[in-house]
């Protein structure tokens, strides 16, 4: 009986690890179709921004325009409703808009009905204020759960994770840039944040400075900056 305990414990640990990978693993598609990178044979990457728009999102748009770069923004529906003009500016600048939920909920232990309602509300608000109908969904906190795939299918959304997380909400700008530059590769999807969940007037100075340093470095290394759709579904 004593000899059986490590086996049971190991089985439990293995089960927990497997569930954690299914919920949070970037390559997991257990809870619905999901991608986390594009083709490795193309010198291209996708720069993405979560949690916006915020009052300082226009500063990121200015930097992207300066370098002729496009990006994919995953705004929270509540932030779009609060700052519709800035959300429109993102679309009008030629960037792609995805869905990041309405109130940035943690979806584990939530029902499919709850997830579909939150995602659907974001979908409607984004369409109303920007004219764009998202085709990509990035789960808040990167956490997927049972029923999310069904909700995505019903709303015409496909999941997307990331290849490199910048941790721009907790690191200094130099550390964010170094982290991304060390890990970037062909087809990478890079994740930064132009907002801080649902906060009003968040300080995104680190993100702005990181983008200011990162854009010329990526271009110097020969990377083409594309939207997620362009990266995943290249036309040429």
Q: Calculate the mean pLDDT score and round it.
A: 92
- Per CATH, the architecture is Alpha-Beta Barrel
Main sheet, how many strands, which sense, barrel? 6 strands, parallel
Low-confidence stretches: 1-8
CATH class assignment: Alpha Beta
Total number of helices: 9
Shape: globular
CATH fold naming:
TIM Barrel
Number of domains: 1
Fraction in beta strands: 5-15%
Q: Radius of gyration, Cα only, in angstroms?
A: 18 Å
Structural class: alpha/beta
Kindly report the name of the CATH homologous superfamily. Glycoside hydrolase/deacetylase
Order of helices and strands: HEEHEHHEHEHEEHEHEH
How much helical structure, as a percent, in the residues? 40-55%
What does this 3D model show about the protein?
By secondary structure, the chain is of the alpha/beta class. It has nine helices and nine strands. α2 links the parallel β2 and β3. The relative contact order is 0.21. Residues 1-8 have low confidence and may be disordered.
């Amino acid at each position: 009986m004593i000899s059986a305990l490590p086996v049971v414990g190991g089985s439990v640990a293995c089960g927990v690890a497997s569930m954690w990978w299914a919920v949070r693993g970037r390559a997991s598609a257990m809870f619905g179709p999901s991608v986390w990178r594009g083709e490795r044979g193309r010198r291209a990457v996708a720069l993405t921004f979560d949690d916006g728009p915020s009052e300082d999102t226009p500063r990121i748009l200015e930097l992207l325009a300066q370098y002729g770069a496009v990006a994919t923004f995953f705004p929270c529906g509540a932030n779009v409703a609060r700052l519709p003009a800035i959300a429109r500016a993102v679309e009008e600048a030629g960037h792609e808009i995805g869905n990041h939920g309405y109130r940035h909920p943690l979806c584990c232990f939530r029902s499919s009905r709850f997830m579909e309602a939150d995602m659907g509300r974001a979908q409607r608000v984004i369409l109303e204020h920007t004219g764009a109908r998202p085709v990509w969904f990035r789960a808040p906190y990167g956490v997927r759960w049972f029923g999310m795939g069904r909700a995505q299918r019903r709303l015409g959304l496909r999941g997307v994770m990331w290849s490199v997380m910048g941790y721009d909400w907790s690191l200094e700008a130099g550390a964010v840039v170094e982290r991304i530059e060390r890990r970037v590769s062909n087809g990478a999807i890079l994740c930064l944040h132009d907002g801080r969940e649902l906060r009003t007037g968040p300080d995104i100075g680190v993100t702005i400075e990181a983008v200011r340093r990162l854009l010329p470095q990526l271009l110097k290394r020969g990377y083409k900056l594309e939207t997620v759709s362009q990266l995943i579904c290249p036309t040429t």
